[in-house]
Write a structure and sequence with these properties.
Two copies of one chain form a homodimer. Chain A is α/β, with parallel strands linked by helices. Chain A folds into two domains: 222 residues, Alpha-Beta Complex (2-enoyl-CoA Hydratase, Chain A, domain 1), CATH 3.90.226; 241 residues, 2-enoyl-CoA Hydratase, Chain A, domain 1, CATH 3.90.226. In chain A, a hairpin with a 2-residue loop joins strand 12 and strand 13. Chain A starts with 15 loop residues before the first strand and ends in a 14-residue tail after the last helix. Chains A and B meet through helix 3, helix 5, helix 6, helix 7 and helix 18 of A and helix 3, helix 5, helix 6, helix 7 and helix 18 of B.
Chain lengths: 552, 552
């Protein structure tokens, strides 16, 4: 399998163009047909593969961090009459199931990131659909706050996956149509079964788009709407933070970033991740934070974790268990944790905050077993404790490793306001509320412990760790747990973890990852889609899928 | 494929025993090993197949209708040391994917029916787990309001599907553990990966069971709890209604019941269902209703629809589209509709009401395309209009069929309180609120029309039908719609419909059908479970599954 790299830069984009004009930016899609990430397909008609979406993700991030002045973003097509044809079908047809699923996950996260920019950055995205938006192309538009469709007599929006490919839209289409845009279910049914889609009054009346605009008024109307959105923004800040290349080094099976190290154990099918706490006290004020830029500890940690999660998910599917540790000074972590809250009104700190939120949310939907190990020297505090709470289990050493460092301080964990709603999961719950779902007393009890250093006994009492063991049992237990985990069916674990991690309410986001994705997974592997005569494999051959019509 | 029959009677049960002792009934599971529904497996250790669950469903229904005096139901095991081992693994291993999924759907509905009896009939179910409850066995217990586990030093509760079979619990286990019983997610993770399960203090402390009781106190404690639950009940009524055999006749491809007819068109892969309205005015009072018993029109219609839905789902997987029509006198339907509301306090009317609710909910989770056709002579009114609103689309003729009966009255539909919350979907929404999700004005507008006869134009204006067409276009349109529908991928349609039908909030019930089932579907078809070396196929051979460890 090709090793995928998520680093890029606007100067290296092959598919998108990023133009900034004062408070309005424009991202234009003009896919290089010959720029596919792997060989075997041409990216015709502005269709995309993972490489195209990696550039879009980079653009979304740069707009947030490098461009505090940008308050509205127009997404548009750079080809004639074709906004975007969605995911490339030949790419899908030749890809493994794991690749397809991981690709959909990343594109979903990028779409959610666009909505997050609109909701939390005062950067409103507007889809200027200046040609046909089909399938994933329309799903791109659905992630934007407004959708304007050109009225040229031919351009439509459509979700042709069901009628043409025998699969579901892979990036939230069905859910966003009914749950975000509130299209009536019978109309959604008509829409999702009509390959050619809709345009004009019907598209507006049903809520598929917000407006249609003739070509002659196009530029003026899009500009008017973009500036209107910008006028509503409270985004502030004048100087951005340049996203310089990550300081990532690879040394055999060890990946090193500033503050994050990952060691890959291929025999055990495991990754050991260690996050380092800060080495210095935080800067005195927002100006100092901005001056540090990419070196600001919470930002550096987030960038490293984000890249690591994406690389491991895409490139290392066999490493099914991630063990998460931290190492550092609890006081310093607490100081940064408090600063993120204190300076929440600052644009850059706000961006760091939401970026960390999005990054931990990636863990929630990662199809790997996540185990937190809490030992002496660790600093699972506030925002870093969120990493442990995102894990499926938390193991904490009671006391110290007598044969390693008997004089060490035993591990503690510390809850802060960061654990009580600052970094919500996709379902809107804090990880603490999710943990104590249905046990309000336990949640209230935990809230009373904010700021206290909890040793293993206290942490176990408060329900914050799965198990606290002394060093006689600890190492054996961890070894057995990891061996057992590695022996189980990876599919069953993925399904089980997805169900346990999202208790309680559901949102558009969790429905997309939890319900829609699971249906899509199933449909993707069925012979009606992916078999030799399935619709996905036959697409473009002039033959329709040859279906077994049995309903399941 | 074997044609499955859902008719049974306690005298014919091979697997369950139903004993009624005053206000407490006991249902005991002692599976006849040699009583499998199809050949090829022995139902050892109180494991079950569809036939076992058909008997349980019959018992649940009889307790509600025949036994108004029963206020608590004890579910227990009739074998030594084994409450229930769950679904039979050899049965699963030899079954087609469609069979497994439909089997899980029916068992889920029966479990939900047990919860419905507890919530809406004052008939509280109590699981007296007098031996090991594994997998589906524990899921049976999870459907009960209380779970008491015998403390005999060996009996446990467990969900061994992930570690032993490489699949997920198929009947809501994961969801009920975290969302209903509020087991902390890391403990749920430990539980669902530990094949042997838990017992004793751990099981109680984690919330897996409510209590453990030693053998010597068993009968007394179970009796005490059952009578305590009964004492809380407000259930009334002294004489039950005997569930006599359904008057179903089969005439070639036509199934006839009192008030319901279904015509199977195998070439078109379609079923045409017609529900007849009542022929007489409703009885004067609750005593009159009870005297009619199974002949009471709403009850007769419900029993017929329930049986029809179950038979078609199980026996006719190739008939992918169901077209729903009604025929009858709107005034009479309105009179019955009003009576169900007026006599809501009567135990029998309450039972009929909730049975109809459960039956329409079966439609919501039926993996068939549902199309309502509204023509002159129809009576889509109140409770019958729910059938149309459950459909994916509603087509209404404007005017009359000029060449058939030019003098006919054009069709109308009528909203009543029945459409505004009396028959909620599994997500708690009325079908009307679901239809207008995100459009509160339209919902309020529809509410203003309660009781009015809406012709095609008015119905379309109010957003209650997908399309209103005159007879020049109507027949052509319906023909094209049905032909197109029949040509699409059945898997994609199933996933699409499941997503469109459940907009807005989620509950334990919708999570089980929508999210958990979809994951299970996918995992069931993966080689790691169902391939020649998969865990499900190898179970019992002494060999574990041979897994491809790639995470997806």
């Amino acid at each position: 399998m090709t090793e995928v790299d998520f680093d890029t830069h606007p100067k290296r984009y092959r598919h998108w163009r990023l133009d900034v004009d004062g408070e309005v930016a424009t991202v234009s899609l003009a896919v290089d047909e010959h720029g596919g990430l792997v060989p075997g397909y041409d990216l015709k008609m502005n269709s995309y593969d993972l490489g195209v979406d990696i550039e879009l993700y980079d653009a979304v991030q740069r707009l947030r961090f490098q461009h505090p002045e940008v308050k509205a973003v127009v997404m548009t097509g750079g080809l004639d009459r074709m906004f975007c044809a969605g995911a490339n079908i030949r790419m899908l047809a030749q890809s493994s199931h794991a690749w397809k699923v991981n690709f959909c996950k990343f594109t979903n996260e990028t779409r959610n990131g666009i909505e997050d920019a609109t909701d939390h950055s005062g950067q409103t995205w507007l889809a200027a659909v200046n040609g046909t938006a089909a399938g994933g192309g329309y799903e791109l538009a659905l992630a934007c706050e407004e959708i304007v469709l050109v009225d040229d007599g031919s351009s439509t929006v459509s979700l042709p996956e069901v009628p043409l490919l025998g699969v579901l839209p892979g990036t939230g289409g069905l859910t966003r149509v009914v749950d975000k845009r509130h299209v009536r279910k019978d109309r959604a049914d008509l829409f999702a079964t009509k390959a050619e889609g809709y345009r004009g009054d019907t598209a507006v009346q049903w809520g598929l788009v917000d407006a249609t605009v003739p070509k002659r008024d196009w530029d003026e109307e899009i500009g008017r709407r973009a500036h209107q959105a910008a006028a509503r923004s409270t985004r502030s800040g004048s100087r951005g933070v340049e996203l310089t290349p990550l300081g990532r080094t690879v040394d055999g099976d060890t990946l090193r970033y500033p503050f994050v190290t990952a060691t890959l154990d291929r025999d055990a099918r495991r990754v050991d991740v260690t996050v380092e706490g800060p080495t210095d006290a935080p800067p005195a004020d927002a100006a100092g934070v901005l001056a540090q830029g990419v070196d600001y500890w919470p930002f550096a940690v987030t960038r490293a974790l984000d890249d690591l999660v994406l690389r491991l998910r895409t490139n290392e599917p066999l490493l099914g268990t991630w063990v998460v540790r931290t190492h550092g000074d609890t006081d310093l972590v607490l100081a940064y944790d408090a600063q993120l809250a204190d300076l929440a009104g600052d644009w850059f700190v706000n961006e760091v905050h939401h970026y960390y939120k999005r990054t931990v949310k990636r863990l929630d939907v990662t199809s790997r077993s996540l185990i937190a190990v809490i030992e002496p020297g660790s600093c699972f505090t506030g925002l870093l404790l969120e990493l442990a709470l995102a894990c499926d289990r938390q193991y904490m050493l009671e006391g110290v490793y007598e044969d390693v460092d008997p004089a060490a301080d035993p591990a503690t964990i510390t809850l802060t306001a960061s654990n009580d709603g600052a970094f919500p999961m996709g379902n809107g719950l804090s990880r603490l509320a999710s943990r104590f779902w249905g046990h309000d007393d336990d949640l209230e009890g935990a809230r009373k412990l904010l700021g206290e250093r909890l040793d293993a006994h206290a942490a176990e009492e408060a329900g914050l760790v799965t198990m606290a063991l002394d060093d006689i049992d600890f190492e054996d237990e961890i070894r057995i747990v990891l061996e057992e985990r590695a022996s189980l069916s990876p599919d069953a674990l993925t399904g089980m973890e997805a169900n346990h991690r999202f208790v309680g309410p559901e949102t558009v986001e969790t429905k997309i990852f939890g319900r829609l994705t699971a249906w899509q997974n199933w449909i993707f592997v069925r012979p009606n889609a992916s078999g030799p005569d399935g619709a996905l494999r036959r697409y473009g051959s002039g033959q329709r899928g040859d279906y077994d019509y049995k309903r399941v």
